[in-house]
Write a structure and sequence with these properties.
Helices cover about 10% and strands about 50% of the residues. It has about 120 residues and is mainly beta. A hairpin with a 4-residue loop joins strand 4 and strand 5. The longest helix is centred in the N-terminal third of the chain and has 10 residues. The radius of gyration is 16 Å and the shape is globular. The termini are far apart. The model has no long low-confidence stretch (mean pLDDT about 90).
Length: about 120
Amino acid sequence: MSYLLIFNILQLCSLYSKGRFLGFKRGQRAQHENTALIQLENVNSKEETTYYEGKRVAYLFRAPTAKKGSNIRCMWGRITRPHGNSGVVRAKFRHNLPPSAMGSTVRVMMYPSNI
């Protein structure tokens, strides 16, 4: 089997898709850190975001110290609703994302399924 064929198979059966943490929900003057805005990969309209509502989101980052043998930590959240008309969604995390995470990648898990 060629490397390219294996790569394509692995891409098709991935348990998550990528998203980008843009920032927090905000008004003209106030920023609400309890709601994160996430741009989903290959999603460009409000109608396409309905599939992702209720899906879980993971923000992975490296910590300076190891716990349980690993430096990688995870913060979990859930997509709640669309934000605007261009494929951005709102997500609430168990613990608010840090501002240093703005612009970084998050994983949007393909579960729980609502089909």
